[in-house]
Design goal:
alpha/beta; Rossmann fold; 38% helix; transport; ABC_transporter-like_ATP-bd
């Protein structure tokens, strides 16, 4: 499970996050939504120990990321699909990840098959990958250790319709197996297809949260999103 408890973050006098609190339970997918600059990436970076909160706490499975023993077996992350060595092949990148976790080479083949990068694709260097292929590779790297928590920032960015459908099935399967998934995306319709819970953030503050059914009330997620974020913008001007 994932828990944000009263998390605030101040950069040079500006509040990037303001008293953010929400949880992601086991076996659920939470869509983390907001416009650019709303604070989503900052919150995710704090969650996985890449940034420090000014106040509050963010925990995974009841502990801060830095206190997890062998975190790769507990938490899988994809924060930037472009952060991969362009001169290495997809297989090499996953093999190095597996070695660091002490996993057998057979796990690399399993993951390549899972994310659809088998055959020639696995032997191509990342510099020749499309953005969608890099996303698949990044997701595969996150899944190497069979984690129970996934933190994914824009994982469907660059995927074609077939890839989006594949991602949808993957997320459903992971949540059915008990995995907790925090998913940031700008594709509101796709989030509506896979998420159990929604958290909408604007100007660093939680604007609303709840199940998809609780939030809908006769409106689409897109309508709710634009109404709330527009109001948040007006309240700060």
């Amino acid at each position: 499970m994932i828990e944000f408890r009263n998390v605030s973050k101040i950069y040079k006098g500006v509040k990037a996050l303001d008293d953010v609190s929400f949880t992601v339970g086991a076996g659920s997918v939470t869509g983390f939504l907001g416009p650019n600059g709303a604070g989503k990436s900052t919150a995710m970076r704090i969650l996985v120990g890449l940034s420090r909160a000014t106040a509050g706490s963010a925990t995974l499975l009841g502990r801060p990321y830095a206190e997890l023993a062998c975190p790769g077996f507990h938490v899988g992350t994809l924060l930037d699909a472009g952060a991969q060595h362009p001169g290495r092949t997809g297989r090499e990148i996953l093999t190095l990840g597996a070695m660091m976790l002490g996993l057998p080479k057979s796990r690399v083949d399993e993951v390549l098959d899972l994310v659809g990068l088998t055959g020639r694709e696995s032997g191509r260097t990342v510099s020749g990958y499309s953005l969608g292929m890099r996303q698949r590779l990044g997701v595969g790297h996150a899944l190497l250790g069979r984690p129970k928590v996934l933190v994914l920032d824009e994982p469907v960015n660059g995927l074609d319709p077939q890839g989006i459908r594949w991602m949808r099935g993957l997320l459903h399967g992971l949540s059915d197996s008990g995995c907790s998934v925090l998913l940031s995306s700008h594709l509101l319709h796709e989030v509506e297809q896979v998420a159990d819970h929604i958290v909408i953030i604007g100007r660093g503050r939680i604007l609303t949260q709840g199940t998809v059914d609780e939030l809908n009330r006769g409106q689409s997620l897109e309508q709710i999103f634009f109404e709330l974020t527009a109001n948040a913008d007006r309240s700060t001007t």
